[in-house]
Amino acid sequence: MVDHFVGTWKIESSDKFDDYMKAIGVGFATRQMGNMAKPNLIIAVEDQGFISMKSQSTFKTTEIKFKLNEEFDETTADDRKTKTVITLDNGKLVQKQSWDGRSTAIERSIEDGKLIARCIMGEVVAVRTYVKEA
């Protein structure tokens, strides 16, 4: 179940995120903004089995609504148009994005009460750690 992901998560730390953005092809100016943004991640379960995931910061707010294991079209915060599928794999929410013959994965898991998001592009792995807001 995704229930333990539900809630509002505040970013606590971000490691190698600039390297990750570079690897997926994000331009310099957008990377600067992305590095400064401290997004909250809001995850909710809605009607008919839809899950919503909203990333909210002063820079930009993006939201996706999806059903597990069903591909959908996503426009990412850096404006990539991707085919995305999110699965629940061994307790991890795994988001796979494909575009222009490339692909990346974001694996979200709960570890020690924190939400850990691993952004993976080839050899590059960025780790973003979130704490749950009371």
Automatic annotation (TrEMBL):
It comes from the Eukaryota. Coiled coil: none annotated. CDD domains: FABP11 (cd19616). Residues 6-133 form the Lipocalin/cytosolic fatty-acid binding domain. GO terms for molecular function: lipid binding. Pfam families: Lipocalin (PF00061). Gene3D superfamilies: 2.40.128.20. Signal peptide: none annotated. Belongs to the calycin superfamily. Fatty-acid binding protein (FABP) family. This is Lipocalin/cytosolic fatty-acid binding domain-containing protein.
